[in-house]
Amino acid sequence: MRFGKEFVSQMIPEWQEAYIDYAHLKTILQDIQASRKNSDSNSQNTPSFARNLTRRYNRDTSVFENHDIVVNTVIRDEEELETTTTTTYETTFLKAGEAGGDFEVTFFRTLDREFNKVNNFYRLKVETARNEALALNKQMDALIAFRHKVMDVKKPSVFDSVSVDINGLASEVGSSSKSREHRVALADLMRNDDDTSKESILERIRMNKTREITPLSAIKTILKVRKQDELKFTRENLKEVEKRLQIAFIEFYQKLRHLKNYSFLNASAVSKIMKKYDKIAKRNAAKLYMEMVDRSYLSSSDEVHQHLLKVESIFIEHFSNSNRRQGMSLLRPKINKERHLITFSTGFFFGCGVSLIVALGLIIHARNIMGTLGQRTYMETMFPLYRFFGFVVLHMIMYAANIYFWRRYRVNYSFIFGFKQGTELGYRHVLLLSFGLGTLSLCAVLVNLDMEMDAETKDYRTVTELVPLFLLVLVIAIVLCPLNILYRSSRYFFLAVLFRCIAAPFYTVNLPDFFLADQLTSQVQALRSLEFYMCYYGFGDFRHRRRNTCTSNIGFTTFYFIVAVIPYWLRLLQCIRRIIEEKDLCHGYNAIKYLLTIIAACLRTAYTLNRGTTWNITAWVFSGVATFYGTYWDIVVDWGLLQRGCKNSFLRDKLLVPHKTVYYAAMVLNVLLRLVWLQTVLNLKFSFLHRETMVALLACLEIIRRGIWSFFRLENEHLNNVGRYRAFKTVPLPFNYEEDGDHNN
């Protein structure tokens, strides 16, 4: 792999604008190379006498010009910045009068600007890391004192080691009883001072309030019940404090590693580009310029390395029982290795799925099943049960496609979603799960393809009719399985986010929460299939393969409305929660969007069940308003497109996908796919399609629209992080010192 590609691949995506612009510098080198070729061709046309005279002049002047460049260090006073002075480097090119010298002057001017940008950014981040290290040191002092208070056991401290050294020194002087008594008294005095210092620390700290709010604490907040934040010396609190500090140290360690990698990558980029310059321009400037780079703060400061060593030492001693292997395995993220077995299994299940689809089509054609009397009954009973798995498989395939393109265009989706490092699924893993579920579902369909009832019993075999239920129970059991198989961390992450979506008003809303809730709004038909599962098997209709009880039951009809509203209602509650917490009216406008969608969905469902002119008109009006509002929100707010005055017409200034037509096509598709509700109010019918088939096709179109929306939504979120250089999550610390005020550390 060439250095340019490796350089880009190892960048921190959110800091990409703070790196050396290696590609731009290479384009300037290409201009230098082209200008030198032109100058060489012109020199060949020069008379031999003039060429000899030029060579002699160059030999004479080379004695006085030993260098091609001079690098100056400029120190400026900056009142606006937090630091009093800033150090910049300016390079003077001494041979600007030669042919192509203008390009070389431009090259060094650009290189200086890029290097100064990198050097100042690195200095700023190191200062931030220094402040975080001081805060973590204070947290560790509090933790040691807290642990000492809870365990009520005196552990060796700094003073104990001092007393040991004093004892050893005194033994060399003499072993008289008087000196022994003096040593014991001195050691006791130091231990008492140690206990006194720990008590003084505990008197100056209190438990930090966190944003993670449980339903009970949310109710207390609403009722204005005062939250007790004083210290309670219990083992439960100690365990919670240790857990939070452990996460804080791991996150801080990752920041330090990224900073170290940032310094190394940029220094390597400067070295590579200077070597290329010397080779192309036939100069000898790389050595002198790299001496300046080595003296700069970017390369000479070892503060980050010292912080790394200190964090490793503290973490291993206090959070892994002095087990270095265990401690380092927690500090350093696990790297997901691509396994050939995953690729093979994905291809195997894909091939099985295609084969089963072909076999299903051949069996239907050979038996002329579409022309039998049981075909209509099958489409009204068994098809709604199996299409649930089709919706899930399609949504997973869209998610896998999104992961592929997020990685291709360097969208840091694992950081945005808050996945634990080393546990995020790649697109191959998601495809494996989706194709595996699809193959299992198709096998169940083939087993249950008998559409005619038994001629003697006038009934269907119970085992055959229970196949869809067995498949659903198996999928739920796999999702809830506590064993560490089939990506347990990802399954539990999904369940945790799903629980927070269901309990939307009582939990702080994060991006994974509302992102999953938005996905659920595109799975209304899948939720209705689950409702049909409960009715079909709960009332025993599966024994006769009919749905009379479900269609005639008023409870089923009422819940048919509710199911269509639940995802939008949860999303509405999330917006209300964010309004209360963040005091941002933008979430209020977003809540209006979901309220309009709820009304439109109810009216369309009512029109489907009760045909009438009044229902038709009201469904038209509210669906049109909700569609216009939702389309505007998708494109302008969620995707950040249609910005005025940007360099990319009707888009935005920064685009990750190089082809603008992709964005225009996505906007058009979003509008068209949002209009699928027209089929409901227009009552379009096709003789060759069953009504349930039409519902399934429209639901698939909505899932595809949501998949397209997901890519551009996360792209916009990533660009917002890039603009703010936000590459790490904020970890709340457990303790707050009184001198720090009321704000959280």
Q: What does this molecule look like?
A:
The protein is 70% helix and 3% strand. The protein has helices at 3-9, 22-44, 48-61, 101-151, 158-173, 177-203, 215-222, 235-281, 286-295, 297-300, 303-319, 324-331, 340-367, 374-408, 413-417, 427-447, 462-465, 467-480, 488-502, 511-521, 524-538, 548-552, 554-582, 585-609, 613-638, 660-674, 678-682, 691-723, and strands at 69-77, 85-93, 205-207, 735-737. Strands 1-2 form a two-stranded antiparallel sheet. It has a two-stranded antiparallel sheet with strand order 3-4. A hairpin with a 7-residue loop joins β1 (69-77) and β2 (85-93). α4 crosses α6, α14 (374-408) packs antiparallel against α16 (427-447) and α14 (374-408) packs antiparallel against α21 (524-538). The relative contact order is 0.08. The chain crosses the membrane at residues 341-365, 385-406, 427-447, 467-485, 492-509, 552-570, 591-607, 619-641, 662-682. Pfam families: EXS (PF03124), SPX (PF03105).
Write the layout of secondary structure elements.
Layout: H1 3-9, H2 22-44, H3 48-61, E1 69-77, E2 85-93, H4 101-151, H5 158-173, H6 177-203, E3 205-207, H7 215-222, H8 235-281, H9 286-295, H10 297-300, H11 303-319, H12 324-331, H13 340-367, H14 374-408, H15 413-417, H16 427-447, H17 462-465, H18 467-480, H19 488-502, H20 511-521, H21 524-538, H22 548-552, H23 554-582, H24 585-609, H25 613-638, H26 660-674, H27 678-682, H28 691-723, E4 735-737
Main location: membrane
Domain SPX: 1-291
Membrane topology: Multi-pass membrane protein
